[in-house]
Amino acid sequence: MPTAPISLTNDQKPRCVWPGADAFYLEYHDIEWGRPVTDDTRLFEKICLEGFQAGLSWITILRKRERFREVFYGFDIPRVAAMTDVDVDRLLADPGIIRHRGKILATINNAARALEIQAEFGSLAAYFWSFEPKSEARPQTISHADVLAMPHTEASRALSKDLRKRGFKFVGPTTCYAFMQAMGLVNDHIEGCFCRHEVEWERGQLRRPVK
Predict the structure, then answer these.
(1) How high is the pLDDT of residue 96?
(2) Rounded to the nearest 10 degrees, how much is the dihedral formed by the CA atoms of 155, 160, 162, 163?
(3) What is the spatial distance between Cα 115 and Cα 79, in angstroms, rounded to a whole number?
(4) In this structure, are residues 137 and 154 in contact, taking their beta carbons and an 8 Å threshold?
(5) Residues annotated as catalytic (active site), given as ranges
(6) If DSSP codes are grouped into helix, strand and coil, which group holds residue 153?
(7) pLDDT tens digit string along 156-165?
(8) Bridge partners, residue 8, by sequence
(9) Going by DSSP bridges, is the β-strand pair 14-15/7-8 parallel, antiparallel, or unpaired?
(10) What mean pLDDT do residues 95-107 have?
């Protein structure tokens, strides 16, 4: 990750440094990353794709995301939960995704576990947002150094522990923290990034889902 705290691209907007100058990555940073999400399908997709990222870079997964969506039926939870060994063999032969048997099987397993959470909590959103850290547990401003120093947090460790107790796979604390960052459960756009105050406003307007 670059060491400079703020990146200025051709449009001269100050940003977090991690997207670099890649237009595809910049669009993801500006429009998606950190914006609060309460849609179950998007939350399920993200926790699965974060699992596929393990050992890889997120840009690798992002470039393959559309194909992942195609082969996993738009991450429709019941349809993924119903996938069979025939589907697994089909996916292992598809060069458009990450062909890792364990991660493919984990996605199907996690869909079944997600259905159980929906039955218990009413929605995945209500479950995941119950792990949002309290505002007093977070620094008021986030620097580049802060982000580098937080591969996982107390909240992400708690989420990981609970998910694993429920039978989820590929949901370690670092994976869970990346999920929380991306889905807006925390705002880790650094101080000075033009997105930080936009995201904070969206989080302030958000009606948190409850059980």
Answers:
(1) 98
(2) 140
(3) 11
(4) yes
(5) 28, 50, 58
(6) coil
(7) 999 999 999 9
(8) 14
(9) antiparallel
(10) 98
